[in-house]
């Protein structure tokens, strides 16, 4: 999790993974911790407790920093534009960007849940380049066809959509079934 707005998305992802008994590894940036405190009723300690394994952003010797560590993939949620730029440039200054770099070099699934608006040309170029390198850019854009009644339902749909990219079904949202025909 990075410091972009939308900390609840990362928290709800961890909650879904726990409920589905999917092993979760967590790296929190400094600004993610601050955003968690500002945007939610959770503390960084509460969020860390939701993961099976937690690593310091400064621990470049952590298992997830190596291609020898097997992982099905990685979701950076929310993903700041700074982190997107670091991933695009291969600038592994911290464990988040290093682990993302490993996902790309090992041809594993990397999903970047970018969170920014409006987008500059630089943001768009970075998104295009990481997509070309094999990442999936999945902006945190709500779907309104589900007729969400709350922010929680919007968040559940976005988290469910990201887990769909890994073949993991949450059952937490309604799927599009087309327009009703008369």
TrEMBL record:
Key words of the record: Flavoprotein, FMN, Mitochondrion, Prenyltransferase, Signal, Transferase
Gene Ontology molecular function: flavin prenyltransferase activity
Enzyme class: transferase
Binding positions (dimethylallyl phosphate): 145, 161
Annotated FMN binding sites: 3-5, 29, 80-83, 115
Compartments where found: Mitochondrion
Domain Flavoprotein: 1-165
Family matches, as InterPro entries: Flavin_trans-like, Flavoprotein, UbiX-like
The EC number(s) this enzyme carries: 2.5.1.129
A GO CC term assigned to this protein in UniProt: mitochondrion
Signal peptide: 1-24
Catalytic reaction equation(s): dimethylallyl phosphate + FMNH2 = prenylated FMNH2 + phosphate
Family the entry assigns: Belongs to the UbiX/PAD1 family.
Listed NCBIfam families: PRK06029.1, ubiX_pad
Function: Flavin prenyltransferase that catalyzes the synthesis of the prenylated FMN cofactor (prenyl-FMN) for the ferulic acid decarboxylase FDC1. The prenyltransferase is metal-independent and links a dimethylallyl moiety from dimethylallyl monophosphate (DMAP) to the flavin N5 and C6 atoms of FMN.
Subunit structure: Oligomer.
Protein name (Swiss-Prot/TrEMBL): Flavin prenyltransferase PAD1, mitochondrial
Classification of source organism: Eukaryota, Fungi, Dikarya, Ascomycota, Pezizomycotina
Gene: PAD1
